[in-house]
Specification:
Blueprint: H1 34-52, H2 54-57, E1 61-65, E2 83-86, E3 95-99, H3 100-106, H4 110-129, H5 133-136
Parallel strand pairs: 1-3
Antiparallel strand pairs: 2-3
Helix pairs in contact: 1-4
Amino acid sequence: MIRAPWEEKVYRNRHGRGIRTPPFGTRLPHYHTRSGMFDDMAIAQIRRLNAAWPQLLAPLQFAVEDVPPSSPAPWEANPRLTSQAFPASHGIPARVVLYRMPLQSHARSRADLQFAIRDELVLRIAELYGRRPEEIDPDWGM
């Protein structure tokens, strides 16, 4: 059945000034924010390390925060600005936290950011287990 143009449903907001359709078509990829892309890169590196060391990464928790806490612990002489490892204690599993903004501000390209995420994850995992980072990932630091 053919409908007249004035009978068609119009996608506008209440005042008639909004957008008519969704900003993305059904076949276009959704817009990724910088934080979403960072999360995707971190997840990809965790999956890659988990494939090589499932017994090491199984008990760990991973998190991403925007910035490090503004007040470092009193016993820390050099506060870590890019990532931090928290050992397990009193029923809380060991955690590795990446700080997104410092890592993104030092990276010059997307590949540089991927390498920085990889190096930080490997360094903190090695710190938690008392190993050298080269044992966990031979490409660490390259």
